[in-house]
Amino acid sequence: MKKPISLLLVLCMLLALAACGGQERTAPDAPNPPAQTEGTADSSAPDPADAPEPDPADSPAPAPEEEPPVPAEYLILDPTVMPEGGQRDGVTYAAYDGVVEHLFFHPVIAYPELAFDGDAQANGLDDFMVTVNEFNKILDSLYEKDYILVDIGDVWSETTGEDGTPKMVRNTLYIPEGKTPMVFSYDDTNYYPYMLENGFAHKLVLGEDGKVWSWGLDPQGQEVTSRDLDAIPILDKFVEEHPDFSPFGAKACLSLTGYEGILGYRTQTDGAVEWTEALEANRQREREAVKPIIEELRRTGWTFGSHTWGHIRLGSGNMAKIQADTQKWFDEVGSLVGETDILFYPHGERPDGGDWKQTGEAFKYLQSQGFRVFCSVGVESFSFIKKDICAVICDRLHPDGKTLRWSRNRYLRFYDAKDIMDLDIRPDLGLGEDWNS
Ligand SMILES: [Zn+2]
Questions:
Q1: Spatial contact of 357 and 386, defined as CB atoms under 8 Å apart
Q2: Cβ(325)–Cβ(308) under 8 Å?
Q3: Domain ranges in the chain?
Q4: To 5 degrees, how large is the angle CA 237–CA 239–CA 241?
Q5: 193, exposed or middle or buried, with CB in 10 Å at 0-12, 13-18, 19+?
Q6: Distance between CA atoms of 74 and 307, rounded to whole angstroms?
Q7: Cα 126 to chain center, whole Å?
């Protein structure tokens, strides 16, 4: 009976190695992670030095084929609660009531040679996107400058005012001393068809390690599954390697439209074509396929907000359109990602015109549908709790080609565009005067 015991021991040790994160290494008999093309082909091979040295005769039997990967526990903590004794893991926490910075990104460009190829979209991509390389450097800089991530859902809460009506309040955050809290949001993480020809990941998938990877095609048309080519797995990996960048486990809030599906899955109905049983069956398959990815994202600190179903202009005053669109978002996106009280304005366009002090018809309607945090785009991480209605409005900053070129000074507290920008591969569209200082 010696053999089963040693086999068990070996398995336990391997499990323990896998459970502590083990630097991505897979146990010898675990399934291979997805194909890797990023020069990390070796990392899937077990390092003999890390494995116990079993007698060859005692080699563990192959794992049963259906065994699902065991995800490492992922802790999500509440930043509105001071840790007992004011400390956690030897780190001192302090109350924070200052500005919570808010940066938003679009999907990042995996292959700049496809994005900046001089076609009709190249300049728009230059305006609104950053490359993988730039995104990595931005993360490094934010980390060096002692920013930490918090979830947007923890910054404000709904409460009842003295007059008995609901209102929003800003929460005190308890954060590691010396750090500055920051919210991330990612807009349009839908992987629109136009992005697919322009050097972006095509969709999110689950790797055989149970983690979120991106899937796409390289410029030669070869399939690539990677954790280094999309802002979602890149941030997951960054937090694995720098857990103190996200002491509460927060990642980003994903701002989703619905008209071309979500996360690379075509979960939408399409009013433009005659809807058939076959189309509906395909849509239902896509809905089923995206569910485990949503679940894994939620489990690991990602949250979701609405970016309207059709990326519509909320300043249009067309109430019938706004109402139909909102219902469609609930039906096709909310039904998958769950309830949210966060709305990200498409084009940054405020409802009812630009006067944020007013509360117009469209704003009231959207608030009545459960939205409480209304995010626009601006020149600072401005926020304002509305007095006449239970809602908060906030602006986000936007690291992208536009601000890298033209707003270097404004973003210096986060990073220096001079250190970030891939000038060699972007089109030559000029640089702001503050690049000379
Ligand atoms: Zn958008």
A1: no
A2: yes
A3: 2-58, 84-435
A4: 70
A5: exposed
A6: 27
A7: 20
Q: How far is the CA of 227 from the centre of ligand 1 (A)?
A: 23
pLDDT at 155: 98
pLDDT in tens, 34-67: 333 333 333 333 333 343 434 444 444 445 556 6
How many angstroms separate the CA atoms of 156 and 256, rounded? 21
Q: How far is the CA of 188 from the centre of ligand 1 (A)?
A: 5
User: What kind of fold does domain 84-435 have according to CATH?
Assistant: TIM Barrel (3.20.20)
Neighbour-count burial of 299, counting CB atoms closer than 10 A to its CB (0-12 exposed, 13-18 middle, 19+ buried): middle
User: What is the 307 CA–ligand 1 centroid distance (Å)?
Assistant: 7
- End-to-end Cα separation, the chain, in angstroms: 75
| Residues with Cβ–ion distance below 5 A, ligand 1 | 187-188
CA-based nearest residue to 70, from 34, 17, 109, 117: 17
Full-model pTM: 0.84
Q: How many Å apart are CA 340 and CA 326, to the nearest integer?
A: 12
Nearest in space to 324 (alpha carbons), one of 277, 369, 284, 372: 369
Q: How far is CA 204 from CA 27, 222, 292, 306, 339, in A?
A: 24, 17, 11, 19, 21
Report how far residue 389's alpha carbon sits from residue 19's, in angstroms, rounded to the nearest whole number: 47
Residue with tokens 């780190």: 91
Q: Which residue has the tokens 């103190």?
A: 244
If you compute the radius of gyration of the chain from its CA atoms, what whole number of angstroms results?
Answer: 23
Ligand 1 centroid distance, CA of 310 (Å):
10
Q: Cα 197 to chain center, whole Å?
A: 22
Residue-wise pLDDT for 82-106, tens only, equals 999 999 999 999 999 999 999 999 9
Q: What does the block give as tokens for 91?
A: 């780190």
Distance from the alpha carbon of residue 173 to the mean position of ligand 1, in angstroms: 29
The DSSP line for 401-425 is HHHHHH-TGGGTTT--HHHH--TTT
Instruction: Return the amino acid letter for 168.
Output: M
* Dist CA 62 CA 322 (whole Å): 56
